[in-house]
Amino acid sequence: xxxxxxxxxxxxxxxxxxxxxxxxxxxxxxxxxxxxxxxxxxxxxxxxxxxxxxxxxxxxxxxxxxxxxxxxxxxxxxxxxxxxxxxxxxxxxxxxxxxxxxxxxxxxxxxxxxxxxxxxxxxxxxxxxxxxxxxxxxxxxxxxxxxxxxxxxxxxxxxxxxxxxxxxxxxxxxxxxxxxxxxxxxxxxxxxxxxxxxxxxxxxxxxxxxxxxxxxxxxxxxxxxxxxxxxxxxxxxxxxxxxxxxxxxxxxxxxxxxxxxxxxxxxxxxxxxxxxxxxxxxxxxxxxxxxxxxxxxxxxxxxxxxxxxxxxxxxxxxxxxxx
Length: 323
Ligand SMILES: [Mn+2]
Prior knowledge:
- With 323 residues, this protein is an alpha/beta fold.
- 39% of the residues lie in helices and 20% in strands.
- It has helices spanning 3-13, 28-41, 55-64, 128-133, 141-154, 163-176, 180-186, 193-204, 225-235, 265-275, 297-313, and strands spanning 18-21, 45-49, 69-70, 80-84, 102-105, 118-121, 207-211, 214-221, 239-245, 249-255, 278-282, 286-291, 318-320.
- It has a seven-stranded mixed β-sheet, sandwiched between helices.
- Helix 3 (55-64) links the parallel strand 2 and strand 3 (69-70).
- 48% of the residues are buried.
- The site of manganese (II) ion (MN) has 6 residues, from loops.
């Protein structure tokens, strides 16, 4: 990503009315990077969400007294539209047919990605917050705190980070004037009752296979697929693949630190995305696929399970675990 060019672009936005938006079900990284960007740009910038936010994002918006409008209620005329944290057409359906001035994102793009006049994509960044942080030379306390919260949340508390992530985090922490303990409590996830119920219910439908010394777990849920995938890895799965059949199909995948470094969930979710009539992508340890073909979800899950088992087994026997 061309950071100097992105900085110049941001400077050019300062005189304009800017509407900043993000993906469906805005999470901490999306909301924090959008709010920080709007505060940096000034009073003419607004943040608008396509639909509801995740519970932790809602909580932080209240805490930082940020304003997040409803996208559908904003009269778009006169605004330059900027997107953070996604370029997936499935997660940005509110922007269909609309002109996008720029996208800032840390997810790799593909042919299906939403087009923008300027695409600032850095797939090596832990989070959109990490990208935005590098574009703002002297963040004030509020901006620094929000960006650090987004970075901590999306880097899975620094698990998915590199030296630059930590450097950026260090600068944000000192600019925030807060302690790491304080800021990281803002990024902590307090599971609500429905998430916990869905997680426990997912265990009933769980298929587990052993490939060498690694465990691949696959299940289906009605909601909270990403959360359930995280929970399954905490329970002991090395690869957790969770399908969610709602208005559209979604597959969330997570893996443990035990999987070999050459294993990546990205190609797996790209394939799953195609199978469910959509797109997939993400990061090595955390990836997602979404698509419109809900009836293809079961087939996609079995293929994902097979491919993950084969990649991990390295010739060792693959054994379905019977309960
Ligand atoms: Mn993100």
